[in-house]
Specification:
Helices cover 65% and strands 0% of the residues. By secondary structure, it is mainly α. The chain has 2 domains: 52 residues; 64 residues, Methane Monooxygenase Hydroxylase, Chain G, domain 1, CATH 1.20.58.1610.
């Protein structure tokens, strides 16, 4: 039973921190949103007047670029540990990583050919 004491303490401390943060926010937070800082209480552009509607739709290209950024960011995450143990993996590790890079390269060429990288 002694092995569960650190887990229980972790839950108690994290719960206490969460309750303390909620209490501090309630105590120090704004009381009346209709006061003289009404514009700052709007959830858009940090108190600036709205230029466009918050419900405005983004182009699908925005999401494609974001998705490709995540894919190539993950590639970098996989390349770093591979480069650290490159010699231990030998030829098999090299071939596997080349297959991985070629698959990503083919995907990039496809997206490039379709024009998803063009920002208009």
């Amino acid at each position: 039973m002694n092995q569960y004491i650190p887990v229980l303490l972790l839950f108690l401390v994290s719960g206490g921190v969460a309750i303390a943060m909620l209490g501090i926010a309630e105590f120090l937070g704004p009381k009346d949103p209709r006061d003289k800082f009404r514009e700052k209480m709007e959830p858009f552009e940090c108190g600036e007047n709205q230029i466009a509607s918050p419900q405005q739709r983004f182009s699908i290209r925005f999401y494609l670029i974001a998705l490709m950024f995540i894919i190539f960011d993950i590639e970098a995450v996989f390349l770093f540990p591979w480069s650290v143990i490159f010699q231990e993996l030998g030829l098999f590790g090299f071939v596997e990583m080349m297959v991985f890079i070629i698959v990503l390269g083919v995907g990039l060429a496809y997206v490039w050919k379709k024009g998803a990288l063009e920002w208009e």
